[in-house]
Amino acid sequence: MITPNKIFNYLQGNIRLFxxxxxxxxxxxxxxxRYRASICKESCLQYGKCQKCGCDLPGxxxxxxxxxxxxxxxxxxxxxxxxxxxxxxxxxx
Length: 93
Hints:
The chain has 93 residues and is mainly α. The protein has 4 helices and no strands.
């Protein structure tokens, strides 16, 4: 079902994907997208869509709101929150 929230998420994800192609995406968001991709490499990425919500990849990886309510990974964070999260979870890039 198409909802305003799904339309917003689609636009946000694809605008950020486009931004990254031109090196305009902030580093903390790039890292979080790579982190999400690494978690989903053996599930969602193999199918080209999110196994939880069915949204297309890679655009879904760039959406702020996590479709899995934090079960696999949290919502995208600002740069300060991301640094704390990386430290607390021993994530290195």
